[in-house]
Design brief:
- There is one protein chain.
- The chain is built from 2 helices and 5 strands.
- The protein has one domain.
- About 25% of the residues lie in helices and about 35% in strands.
- The chain is globular and about 40 Å long.
- The longest helix is centred in the middle third of the chain and has 17 residues.
């Protein structure tokens, strides 16, 4: 199963939303929001899940997309996810 971690702009800062979080995390800095997204994705990967980070910029366009595979290769084979998705 692939988990989503999204970074997007909001008034006054940046928001990180992720599967499994009770609510969004708010940051004033986009860099800090991205750092938090990576920490969440790595924690998901360390627990055997795929994680996808999506970063959206202020004009609404997706700037970046990263996939973090599970760190346990046995789990990775069981929870395989496509690297690219059709638009």
């Amino acid at each position: 199963m692939k988990h989503s971690v999204n970074v997007s702009p909001v008034e006054g800062g940046w928001m990180v939303q992720a599967d499994g979080l009770e609510g969004p995390l708010m940051f004033r800095s986009g860099g800090r929001a991205e750092d938090a997204a990576w920490r969440i994705a790595r924690a998901l990967a360390d627990n055997g899940a795929w994680a996808e980070i999506r970063i959206t910029v202020r004009d609404g366009h997706r700037m970046s997309r990263f996939l973090c595979p599970p760190t346990d290769t046995r789990t990775a084979a069981q929870n395989a996810a496509p690297i690219f998705e059709a638009a």
